[in-house]
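Sequence in, structure out.
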Amino acid sequence: MQAHYGNTRGNDRRRDGERERGFGYGGGGGRGYEGRGYGARIGGGRGRGGGRREKERGVDEGKYFHVQLNLFKITHEPGKNWCMYDIEILPLCKFRTADTDSATPLSAYGPSTGTKDPGDVKEENFADDSANVESQPAPASFFIDGNKYMKKDRDTLAFAGGSNERTREVLNTLCNKLLEEGKTLTTTGGTIGVSPEPIFEEREKGYGILVNKKIPFWIILRRTVEDIGATREDNDKYIIQCMDTCLKHCVASGANWTAFGDDTTNFYLPEDQQKHLLEGHGRIFRNFRQGCDHLEPAVGASTAIKTCHDGSTGSSTEYYLALSNCLGFLYKVGAPLLTSNNRDPKIAGVPIRRLNEPIKDPNLQNQVMIALKKVKKFSVKYEKGEIVKRELQIQNPDQSEEDINKRATFFKEGLKMRKKGDEAELIKWSARDEVFEFNGKEVNVQEYFQQRHGITLRYPDMPIILCGRLGYFPIEFLYQEADRLRNANEKAMTETALSYHDNFSGSERIDHIKKIREDVDRMKISQNLLLEFALKIERTNAVFQARRLRAPDLLFGNNVSVHPDNGSINLAGKGFAQPADLTSYAAVDLTMPGRSPSISDILSTLCNELKNHGISMQNHVGNLSDVIIRGAGSNNFETIRSSFRAAVDKAKDFHLERSRLFFTNIVRKDGEVRKCWVVRAESGCHYCIPPGESLPTHDGPNGAKARIQFKKGDTWLDPYSPEMAPEEGHLVEKFGYKNPNSTPHFSDVFFDTALLPRPDLILGSWQIQCPSIVFFYLPDDSKDVYNCIKMIGDIEFGINTQCMVQQKCQKNRGSRMTQYCSNIAHKVNSKLFSKTNNVVTWRVRNGLDWFFAQEAPTLVIGYAMSYGFWDGKPTTVVAGSVCFRDPMQLAQEVKVYFDGDSKDKGFVNPTILADLVETLAISFMVQHSCEGPPRRVLVYRDGGADGSFDRIKREELTSIRNGIGKAIKVACNNWAEMDVVYEPNITFVVAQSNHNIVQAPAERADSINNNVPSGTVVSNIFAGDYAFDFLLTSQGGLKGTSKPLYFKVLVNENGKRSDCNDDSEILTQEKLENLTYQLGFQYGKATKAPRKLPVLLCSELLAERVLKYQYEYIDCVLGEGRLEIDEETKEFVKSHSFNGSKSLISGHSCIDDRCEGSWRVPFNPTITA
């Protein structure tokens, strides 16, 4: 996947087990694959930006070449009468009389206080209704195999995410029943079914089935669409749905592949086929298997249907199967949750200390809880003691020993860890902790099993798990069932996944996918099913024409021009195009004392490197100890928070209290930001000195006005004269005053002595930026402390932070340390961007179509979503970023809201999105000081599921228009009155990253590291409504397979001739491709073009970061590390997360009620650089 460079943490950003790597400074650095950097081999580490590189190979920029995709053409016989059905599943229960209401359900080991079964209701006028229903409500009673059933209180079986394992089991039973009658129905377990021809004449029909021959369901099929095989243009979406359902049904039932949970995208191959697919690469899993005994890596596949054409004029729409490989980690079926190895005991893979003592460590308890929550289902099995077996023998002497053992064995599948009441605990840490009444006396779980079942627990000090109404079970009786591990992001899993995708990369990955494709052919059942639908899948994959876009030249300081090398940029020895001014900073040392390099060594090297790149270190810091805070040693939340506060106070004390002069950014009451001198008066107040020699700063006697003067050496200077540099404030010895056209007087006085400073120049503490940034020196790159720092900096202090890692500094001695600090300098420069400095590390030069976004006010916005839970409630975080004059310059905003309806997952609340876009648009106009509204708008959305684009276009595009419209109304107060309502043209693009299209060069000579080169675009192959779409690979891959981003253009009003003033303003497909590619070279965190657009990547990082602020994250995740969790931490996050209209990141937002108009220009609007 992509190498991200956030805050020098050196992490690869990994998704779907893939990786695209960036190049960097010579000499390496960063964490290489299996702990090795790549600098020694190719003259560049991963992400250090610089050094000599090997000569670039592959196709030349601007040239065409061919790529092979993992697309297999599907041919179908026109005119087939395919039918589509809407499916409803009704859970049933047997008829029960009223006297069964008082029955008490029994737990596995005694009476339970469980709730009454919803099926225990009275019979009410049951009629012998027919099974066939014609547009009528479901019958009150149902007959299956001569038995009478009734509907449960739940009307339908929930389709979680469209499908789940239960619905798939139910519908597969129905499909098999219909197959026995000579009828074919295919389904993925969701609400849609497809048949090659009508399976009944009516519009609606009900079927009764018994799952596993005992669990009753009533399934209603409603025919919604028919004649889908006809050659009508409006049938495209139905044909795609039919093909997708049919093929997934073939894979799941015919090929015997398995899907888990509500995921019908990824299917995992049977165990006997795994070796065949790996074929000599089995060693990549060897290390993982040796260290993990409860999980097994498994190769899988994902399928989707795409519409394409070969690009020739007049070519018709063709359908392709997009088949891709994936890697999952499956629970070993039958493996015990408790690994009772005295040398290495584990619970669900988590190492524990001893088997004969309870787990008391809160951190270890938290790790066990998280691991058990990931186990979605398990089975319970135990064999009762000899006393019970003898009783069974006495009751029935004719029973065989085998029958007695079978009756004495308790076995139940499909259990989950769940509560039976709000007061119950999911886990108790010993079998002695749960006490209840049995046979008239109180017993614990250990005693119950001994007295009731004659079982002596081997590990009574191990946890017991609550399984709903069945009660608690000792963990030694629990066994894993087939399932896939979610969030498989532990180090061993990540390294295994990376190793797998490194071994099958580029063209080798395409060959690997072909083998998976052949497995479908070998399954006769699948082929017969395809023949019924008149479908045929070609054996060979498709080859299409691609083009390598020209990368833009990048302009650094002193007009040094650099051309990217396969998407990477060399920073070595280059001054920044527009360097920032670092007016103030503080540093916090969280490392252990005595270890080198020290924070003073790192800051000294960093300051030198900042200066080498042109960043001005203003407000001279003579001794670094004046701005460094030593951490208290225990890196818990409160320690980090208090250290952060102490660092801020120390910076303010040094610059604002101990110094008479301070040059920094201030925000005025009208919301504008200005860089100016701040003077501390004897009274303790701080005053700003406005630029302009004619502007007075003091009131003298009889209404006389005076302006302050500085004495530097023997010379009196105006504060803003060329001879008075900002970094020389410490050289000012005296203050004086000057009347217009007169000499200075009162030459040795304090600021507010003799003359009165003007009261309108007084500043509140919130109006002064100090410090500009806080550096944190961490012992290692663990996530817990890092996320805590970001949380506190973002939502409490509103100050940007930059982390440095001692472990990496130890590896990067000498010249490598300079390279490490140079990479940090790029990030610092991006974080210090503001309206007063307009900083940028490099600028795009001769960027083909980049000037499209410069010739007139153009609003470029990106937004992304992240999902999680707050206090058990589904929560959505949506974050957005807007580009300014240079796309490396961003403003950001974030919104958090509860989303209780699962149907809305994947879509943004319309009101929330409108508010987000309004804030971003205001930020854009405030930053630009626009004299009018933007003429055009370009919006990128991060991701979207296939089938959701119509709703996204309908709902979210409307919200975007509303948000921009409200922003324009707010800004109209600052412009001349507008006679007409102005609505800018909008281009709305969805950037799909989780698609399953894979590409590789068709010819080895066109590849770089077995991958397509940076800038590869495949376009003019998509058909119908998707004709404007394109695949773009911005990153240059070093390992793994470079996966393209799929850009789906939903609306392009800027591409219509009637909406543009002249032809040069028309946004053609070629212009959009080039513009999108060039936007990728403006990432403030890395010296390379990332896979995802920076405006999307920064939004995604912000959304994920804010989601981690939730106290459930702190409670469940940070507890795994060194952070000590307390109630203050939780309350801190809760109090800062939902505070009405106030922005969660108020320190970086343009919304501020303390300013006129309730908006302001933030000091540093970019958060995630």
